[in-house]
Amino acid sequence: MVDAREELGGAGTPLLAAKSESLRKDWVKAQLVDAGRSRAASLGWPDAYAMTKALGEKALGENHGNVPVSIVRPAIIESAWSEPVPGWIRGFRMAEPVIISYARGLLKEFPGVPEGTVDVIPVDLVVGAIIGVAARGPLNEDGSPDITQVASGSANPLKYERLVGLVQSWFSDHPLYDAEGQPIAVPDWGYTSRDRVQNQLTRAKTMLERTEKAIGSLPLRGKQAAWSAKVEEQRETVGRALTYVELYGAYTACEAIYGVDHLLALHESMAPADQGEFGMDPRIIDWDHYVHQIHLPSVVEHARVRTDGKRGRSESRSDRLRRQVLAPERQMAAFDLENTLIASNVVTSYAWLASRRLDRDDKLRLTAKLVREAPSLLRMDKADRSDFLRSFYRRYEGAPVAQIQEDSAEMLSQLILTKSFPAAIRRVREHRALGHRTVLITGALDFVVEPLRPLFDDIVSASLAIGDDGRYLGQMLDVPPTGESRASALFDFAATHDIDLSESVAYADSSNDLPMLEVVGFPVAVNPEIRLASLARKRGWLVEEWSKAPGFKPPALPLAPRRHLTKPAPR
User: Fold this and answer.
1) pLDDT tens-digit profile of 158-210?
2) What is the pLDDT of residue 232?
3) What is residue 567's predicted lDDT score, i.e. its pLDDT?
């Protein structure tokens, strides 16, 4: 639960519970993987995959009964030499992540033996061998499994040092490009021990985790929150590199050579026409041609990485997502208020309203009190938004309803509009122009947001009970629409107005708003705080960075100006 709360913040109990269960399953899986690797290594296998394949062969040999068995045992399968087309393969194979990480400048060293053999075999040669073995039938007269190894190491070896040189020269001529459109210079590959690379990556990962945690404790949002996203991306990249070293380091350091006498004998026994149709001879592979002209172009294509520095050739991801959000077929657009439409919050609104009719000394005392309470208010807000609002709104107890409504109307022009994001207001109007139903859903009090009603079709907000004397009681009438209750309110609103939430849009700034963002088909993170910025990046959501109008300098404290009453003219 602690890890889930660190990632999601105050997203609500159901989401936190689901995330905790997901993290628990991931932990159990990781423990099982580690146990499998350790067991495989203790028996001499490079990983659990190789060990389980060996166990499968052994079980088949002991239990096949009278059924004849032939086993085709391939080396590392890579892209096709010629069939169905050069470079074809399904899925992302073992070498690709290592190659792409090198091309991106991530891996400068990798555990391996320069003079060692990298035993790879194109997939179409493996298919030809399977067909040939199946057509021939088993060889062993005693009924034991007939094994044919499909490999290249003993007949046409590809040395690790040669492969590295081919990869380095190709990416020097065909570099990948970074997000800024600049070519990535590939490093000179170094050979080192597995432990050294693992230790280097582990230290880097630990340092980035500490940096990420330190940044995550800061109240950053929008462009500043992107710092955390960049650190997180680096940590994930280092983590992937560490996984590659752990998984594939043993293969690059392997010095075993696999015999292919059965494979070559089968190939020679076939008619020339069948040899052309069902080729399986690894000696036909020209490794320079295969790596440069077939395999690496295929790797780059399948990895969908950036291969040129040109800009503007295609629609950017943000533009594409924005176009989807503003498509005519969308039905509803729901907006949060604080830090989504305006750079303000319930404390700011309270400070303005509470100070509207105070003299100078009382304003100073109010300011000092709010400053002292700021840390505790922030902690309460982070812990539970709903509890925070219930507690904070008790400060309105005894306030005259008519006076608050009058002052709220003035606050619209003097505070709310001055702190609004012009791009946000334009976005609301764009949705309305497209015929989408616009809804403001906020934990702010109804009298604070009532002046914004002309901008929206509907407003869902918090409200306070009113006593018989026309004063607020400081008690909320309903559960404030925050967190899970905000998602429930959105569900109810959509059901009432026959709206499909999968065709709706939601705008919010905080991980507390995740329940609302997750129920719609098109979530948008606006000026997101760190947790939401990270989640939006991982989930591919649109991120908007909206700011206040340039040139405006708000006062240092959100206090209302002195109220001047116009005296009636003497008669």
Assistant:
1) 888 888 888 889 988 888 887 677 888 887 777 666 666 667 667 777 776 67
2) 67
3) 42
pTM over 0.85: no
Integer Rg of the chain from CA: 33
What does the alpha-carbon distance between residue 440 and residue 334 come to, in Å, rounded to a whole number? 6
Q: What is the pLDDT of residues 456-481, one digit of tens each?
A: 999 999 999 999 999 999 898 888 88
Of the candidates 224, 221, 452, 496, which has an alpha carbon nearest to the alpha carbon of residue 337? 452
C-alpha–C-alpha distance, residues 209 and 232, integer Å? 8
Which of 233, 95, 212, 103 lies closest to 160, judged by CA?
95
C-alpha 331/C-alpha 309 separation (Å) is 38
- Pairing of β 464-466 and β 472-476: antiparallel
The C-alpha atoms of residue 96 and residue 89 are separated, in whole angstroms, by 11
CA 284 to mean position of chain CA atoms: 43
Place of tokens 């060889």: 139
Element (H, E) at 276: helix 272-277
Six token digits for residue 166: 């081919």
Q: What is the DSSP letter of 253?
A: T
Residue 343 has, within 13 A of its CA and on its CB side, a CA count of 18
d(CA 308, CA 381): 47
Torsional sign, CA 15, 21, 24, 30: negative
* Cβ-proximal residues to 303 (8 Å cutoff; 6+ apart), any chain: 92, 96, 100
